[in-house]
Write a structure and sequence with these properties.
- This protein has a domain at about 1-140 and about 175-195 and about 260-270: NAD(P)-binding Rossmann-like Domain (Rossmann fold), CATH 3.40.50.
- About 45% of the residues lie in helices and about 15% in strands.
- It has 13 helices and eleven strands.
- It has helices at about 10-20, 35-45, 55-65, 80-95, 120-130, 145-150, 150-155, 175-185, 205-215, 225-235, 240-255, 265-270, 275-285; strands at about 1-5, 30-35, 50, 65-70, 100-105, 135-140, 160, 170, 195, 205, 220-225.
- The protein has a seven-stranded parallel β-sheet with strand order 3-2-1-4-5-6-9, sandwiched between helices. The chain has a two-stranded parallel sheet with strand order 7-11. The protein has a two-stranded antiparallel ribbon with strand order 8-10.
- The mean pLDDT is about 95.
- The structure holds NADP nicotinamide-adenine-dinucleotide phosphate (NAP).
- NADP nicotinamide-adenine-dinucleotide phosphate binds near residues 11, 36 and 53.
Length: about 290
C-alpha cells in the first residue's frame, strides 16, 4: 500500500518526501499529491504524482485510491474554507478506506488560544479523532526558516521587530518538522497519538536578537512594535489585510506563551530538534 503526501509542491511537502526517501522508504510507495500536477512533475521525476486539490473532492477520491496513509498539509486559506477542505479530505479518505491520516497541525491548537485560526485547528483535530480512522496529530511549532531568511534585513535595520512583549518561542525548522513527520509516517507505533514538534528551548525576542547579532557580528536589538506599526510593515510587504490581522493574533498567542518547548520531537526521533543557535551554527556559518 502507498502513502500520499498532500501539498507536495510546497516547502514542507518536498522536505517530507526527501526525508522519507533518506529514511529508506521505498519510492514506489510514495505518491506526491499536488494541486498543480505539472509543477509536481517538474519536481519529482521518479515518484508517482497524482492530482490532489483540497477544493476538488473528486480529485481527492481519485488520489487516495489504494493509499493506506494520507498526510495532510493544510493550506493557508481562510479558516472557513479550510474547514470545508478538511471535511472533504477526511470524508474522501473514509470513502477510499485509507487506514491512517497524519496531519500537520499547530502547537497553538487550544480552545483558549489567542490565535484567531486556532478554532480551525481544534475543529480539525476533533474531526480527525472522531473519523474512525487511525490518526497521528503533529502540532508544528513556529518555523525558524522565515526568521533565518529575514536576517539580511535584520542586519540592515539592526533591529528585530515584532509586536511581542514577553512571549517566548521554541522555533523549529521545516527540515526537522519534515524529519519527524517522515518518522511517524514510516514507523509503527504512532497510531492515535498527538505530538508537539518544537526545538527544546524557547527564546524571548531579546534573546533571539542577541543570538542573531552574535552570529552576524552586528549590534542587533529587539524592538517591540505596536500593532499599527506591524500593520504598516505588512502593508509595505504587500500582505493582504486579513492575513495581517491573523498574524497579529498569532503574536498575541506568543505573548500568551502558546509556542513553548516540548520534548515530543526527541521522543519520535531520538535526537533534539535544532534550536535557533544550532541551526545558525549549521547554516549561517556554512553560508558566509
Ligand atoms: N508553523 C509555522 O510557523 C507555519 C508558518 C507558515 C505556514 N505554516 C503551515 O505550513 C503549511 C505549509 O507550509 P509550506 O512551508 O509547505 O508552505 P508553501 O511552501 O507555501 O506550500 C503551500 C502548499 O500548499 C499547496 N496548496 C495550496 N492550496 C491547495 C489546495 N487547494 N489543494 C492542494 N494543495 C494546495 C500549494 O500548492 P501550489 O504549489 O499549487 O501552490 C503548496 O504545495 C501549512 O499548513 C501552513 O498552515 C506553518
Amino acid at each position: 500500500m502507498k502513502v500520499l503526501i498532500t501539498a507536495s509542491t510546497g516547502e514542507l511537502g518536498r522536505k517530507i518526501i526527501d526525508s522519507l526517501i533518506s529514511l529508506g522508504f521505498p519510492k514506489f510507495r510514495i505518491i506526491a499529491g499536488a494541486r498543480n500536477v505539472e509543477k509536481a512533475k517538474e519536481i519529482y521525476d521518479d515518484i508517482e504524482v497524482r492530482h490532489c486539490d483540497f477544493d476538488d473532492k473528486n480529485s481527492l477520491l481519485s488520489a487516495f485510491d489504494l493509499c493506506s496513509l494520507v498526510h495532510i498539509i493544510p493550506t493557508l486559506d481562510l479558516p472557513e474554507k479550510r474547514i470545508v477542505q478538511m471535511n472533504d479530505t477526511i470524508d474522501a479518505a473514509k470513502e477510499k478506506s485509507v487506514h491512517r491520516i497524519t496531519w500537520s497541525g499547530l502547537v497553538a491548537s487550544e480552545k483558549t488560544s489567542k490565535f484567531s485560526i486556532a478554532p480551525y485547528f481544534v475543529y480539525s483535530e476533533c474531526k480527525l479523532m472522531q473519523s474512525g480512522l487511525d490518526y497521528t496529530i503533529l502540532r508544528n511549532g513556529m518555523y525558524f526558516d522565515p526568521v533565518f531568511d529575514w536576517i539580511p534585513d535584520i542586519i540592515k535595520m539592526k533591529r528585530l521587530k515584532y509586536p511581542v512583549s514577553r512571549g517566548k518561542i521554541a522555533y523549529i525548522s521545516r527540515e526537522d518538522i519534515a524529519y519527524a513527520t517522515a518518522k511517524v509516517i514510516s514507523e509503527d507505533g504512532h497510531e492515535n497519538k498527538e505530538y508537539n514538534l518544537t526545538s527544546p528551548r524557547a527564546y524571548s525576542m531579546e534573546e533571539l536578537a542577541a543570538l542573531i547579532g552574535g552570529f552576524t557580528g552586528t549590534d542587533v536589538s529587539f524592538k517591540k512594535i505596536s500593532d499599527d506599526e506591524y500593520r504598516l510593515l505588512c502593508y509595505n510587504d504587500g500582505l493582504p489585510e486579513p492575513i495581517t490581522e491573523i498574524l497579529l493574533t498569532m503574536y498575541k498567542a506568543v505573548d500568551n506563551n502558546e509556542f513553548l518547548a516540548s520534548s515530543d520531537f526527541e521522543t519520535i526521533t531520538g535526537r533534539q530538534a535544532l534550536s535557533p543557535n544550532k541551526y545558525l551554527k549549521k547554516y549561517y556559518k556554512a553560508q558566509v
